[in-house]
Amino acid sequence: MKAYLRGSQDFQKVYKHGKRYDSSLMTAFVLPNRLSQDRLGITASRKAVGNAVQRNRARRLLRETFRLRKSSLVGLQEHYDWVINAKRRLPSFKVTAAIEEFEKLVARVANEENKSRD
RNA sequence: AGAACAGGUUGGGCGGUCGCUGCUGGCAUCUCAAAUCGUCAGUUUUCGGAUUCAUCUGAAAUACCAGACUUGAGUUACCCAGGAGAGGAAAGUCCGAACACUACAGGGCAGCGAGCCCGCUAACGGCGGGGCGUUCGAGCAAUCGGACGACGACAAGUGCAACAGAGAACAGACCAGCCACGCUCUUGAGAUUUCUUUUGAGAUCUCAAUAGAAUCGCGGAUUGAGAGAUUCGGGAUUCGAACGCGCGGUGAUGGGUGAAACGGUGCGGCCCUUCGGGGCUUAAAGUAAGAGCGCACCGGCGUAUGUGGUGACAUAUACGGCCAGGCAAACUCCUCGCAGUGCAAGAUCAAAUAGGGAGGCGUCACCAGGGCUGCCCGCCCGAAUCCCGAUACAUCGGGAUACGACCUCCGGGUAGAUCGCUUGAUCCAAUCUGGCAACAGUUGGACUAGAUGAAUGAUCGCCACUCCGGUCUCAGUUUUCAGAUCUCAGAUUUGGGAUCUCAAAUUUGAGAUUUGAAAUCUGAGAUCGGAGAACAGAAUUCGGCUUAUAGACCUGUUCUCUUU
RNA sequence: GGGGCUGUAGCUUAGUUGGCCAAAAGCGCUGCACUGUCGAUGCAGAGAUCGCGAGUUCAAAUCUCGUCAGUCCCG
Predict the structure, then answer these.
(1) A30 alpha-carbon distance from chain centroid
(2) How far is the CA of A53 from the C1' of B558 (A)?
(3) Which of A54, A76, A98, A113 is the right S-S partner for A91, CB 3.0 to 4.6 Å?
């Protein structure tokens, strides 16, 4: 079902070849993976987010967001590898705000998809 | 009562929905075992029946085979159910241990660390109690209380101390002081005394004057930015065989410096002398002046002994002992301790088109071998086979080709998996026991995260806490308006007697009390809405230390206000 | 898990065998002069309690301990 990106090589591949989408709470790197499912990788660095408590909360919020909004990914044509970087303001927000941001990102990805098909 | 600071305790509660990671139970499956000599199915054999030869069917077998059912044990995917799931610091990684592997005869050097005493503890640089020191406060004092202390040795050696000051570590000598010697060293009068026959000479003292000197004012000149320096004139006081000048000695009495100046006080007599010393008294008898010399006392230190204390230490006495400054968070010395690496330690299992060793009955494939560095790669010599070229078909030249596949066994080991991994120097309770306490014991109870690219989350509701705002109720303060009562003042009317006074009534103004209404403020309660709620996330496990921390509660100190 | 380095004016640095350091320099800042104005130049000035807290010493930026922050390295 849902899978996570683990190794450093997976992340580097997405950073290098994927597309970047910025929002106020997170930054997403997206790369089509030709698999039967979407995969998620989360980063919350000490430099970007803060201490361990903040980083834990950021990671959990992003994971919860991905879990709750799995349905919106069904509308996409392909499956992707997602790498989401948390930003400093993220831990002080509620999960609803994160979901809103994430859906905007998904919409942009879908937009891109349609454009490339045409 | 409030505020600030410091220390300690605590570190919100209940429930719903979705999700994550272990655990427990249930279940398909799978594995193993057992027994029923169980049941069903299949195969084979024998016998019988039916039928068309095929075939179907019934019975039997200590027969064979292995499947299902039963029971037990183990195992696990999904699913279901149950139950659990971050901290007082999980942090910093500053100490101490457990545990694991590696190394290790014993000893030393080097390096690092610890360093008042006793106790607690598995251990500690931690904790408890005590001693000593510094400092602050209280008190007349004895003493008491708080804070701090890396608290062995500078009386083994080496080293360091700016500035100031004469001198800063085998001390020193600037000025003043003291002592001796030399130089300048006038005149008159008087007194005393010595020598001399006398004149006279010398010494000491007093008075006066003067050359000169010192000190203190005043005025001028030169120089200088100034402060001041030099010099001249004149005055006062003092000295005048020195209180001047010079050359020495003495030694720390004073000046002054500094954080620090080598502990302080007192005494050192009399007589003789050939000047070396001797005698008497004395506790002891130095000089020109003196001392670091002699003696005594006080103070401090050290050592020894006694007493008290487990001990650090305290206290007393003695010394043919000493006077020694500070700094070892300067080098150093002394005593004691320390092997190294850290759960990515380490243990077990163990994939592959990776890879080591040994063997091979048989099968497939291949074919001598040697050297250059032990292996691999590579290169060289060389045999054989194949290909190409030349050719007299003898041969010559060039090129190519091999060290296995497969099977069996053994050993290592990467990815990965499992274990280590959470029941432990554990936690909780007790008006229990021992101990001043740290702590230990006893009894009873509890099981309380185990992740590994790393779970412990998201969200909602209610209650509790704090703050802000609104509404209502109650209490109080102040103001305004209205009414009532009382007091005072004035005016009018009436009556009594005398232009005045008394009494009654009406009215106006002021003040006080009280009632009601409104507004404002304060406090309490109820209710509604909004906001806030710290520091911070386990990574092998414990014991400490340190640091961060909203709110609440407790304790202490300081300050302010109120009441008595 | 283990180990090292750094912290001094607004910025960049010096000073770290304790002492004339109550801390130096450059850039920057302020004022004045110069100029019609700005720049440049000249003169003058301000700006630090040496990350923080203790201790040792007569004396600490310097020595010691603790602590905070930053940064680097190894596995």
Answers:
(1) 8
(2) 40
(3) A54
A67: the nucleotide nearest its CA (via C1') is B19
Domain assignment of residue A92, given as a range: 3-109
Query: Running along chain A, 118 residues long, what does each successive block of 10 average in pLDDT?
Result: 66 83 87 78 83 86 84 76 86 85 87 78
How would you classify residue A116: left for phi > 0, otherwise alpha for psi between -120 and 50, otherwise beta? Answer: alpha
pTM (two decimals): 0.70
A116 lies in some domain: no
Its ipTM equals 0.82
Q: How far apart are CA A24 and CA A36, in angstroms?
A: 30
- The number of domains in chain A is 1
A55 touches strand B (CB under 7 A): no
Indicate whether A118 belongs to any domain. Answer: no
The CATH number that applies at residue A28 is: 3.30.230.10
Separation of CA A99 and C1' B110 in angstroms? 66
